[in-house]
Predict the 3D structure of the following.
Amino acid sequence: MVNTERGPRWRPPVARRSEGDARRRRALADAAAGVAPGEAATPPGSTPFGRFRCVIYLCRLPAVSLDRLRTECAEYADAFCWEIAAVIVDEAGPLPPEDRPGFRQAVGHISSGAAGAVVTAQRSMVSATTEEYDRVAREIEQAGGFLHVMRAAPREELST
């Protein structure tokens, strides 16, 4: 036998709940999930302890616009709802990371608990070699955070 009816045969009932009913149901769901009554009212992108914090680290490289990268990194962090604890621009250039004062400052923010991540625009701002980059990432992890690179290779339009 062929069904000639158009559209769904069964429609779910429309929930008709008062605002008080909705609050009570949310409170029950929160209690079932183990959320204390005051904790559920935290704003989006935050935790009961505050928003996740990061440090933006940029290193001066030849023919790279740091102003544009600073803006892009800030927008990138905002997309993750990360609060920016500091923006560090290392003017030292492509020295080994341990010789850059800005890099030491960024790791210091992680060690002190002021931030949980170091965000940089390009991998080359940390190191040009894979071994050195891996060593830097391990150092930041041992300090209690992580290294996050916005993109692996520079884009052509970032050059000045």
User: Anything to note?
Assistant: The mean pLDDT is 79. The beta strands are 53-59, 83-90, 117-122, 146-151.
